[in-house]
Amino acid sequence: MPKLSDAELITMEIVGEFMGKDQDKGIWRYFRNHWHHGVPHLGSRANFAKQSANLWDLKRRIQDHITWEIGARDDSIYLVDGFPMPICKYARSRMWTNGMYCLR
User: Which residues contact 90 (CB under 8 A, 6 or more apart)?
Assistant: First the structure.
């Protein structure tokens, strides 16, 4: 059994996401470096990632409940995050496009 409670882990993920940390590694590292005294049972990153993955259904149900409570299920308009994702990387040529190297 993990020493970190499910409530602690979900709270850490919410705080991490709010801070722009969208991967378990970044969230775990932040709490290990800055909040170790507040989360003494943090454990290893591998255990953190496993516990987080095992809570996927609970997190889905929480999201469903929140969308139901705010009436988002009945909305006919949906907001989509348009944050750009880097999809190109330098590989064979030096073509600079939109702030990154892309293949030609």
Answer: 101
SS3 breakdown of the chain: % helix, strand, coil, rounded to 5? 50, 5, 45
pLDDT means per 10 residues, the chain with 104 residues, are: 87 90 92 90 92 92 87 73 65 55 50
Contact between 19 and 30 under an 8 Å Cβ cutoff? The reply is yes
- Element at 102 (helix H, strand E): strand 100-102
Residue 32: CA atoms inside 13 Å, Cβ hemisphere, count?
Answer: 11
Q: 1 vs 6, 59, 86, 100, CA distance in Å?
A: 11, 19, 38, 45
Say what the pTM is. Answer: 0.63
| Per-residue tokens: 85 | 């994702």
Q: How many CB atoms lie within 10 A of CB 62?
A: 13
**Is the Cβ–Cβ distance between 22 and 68 less than 8 Å?**
no
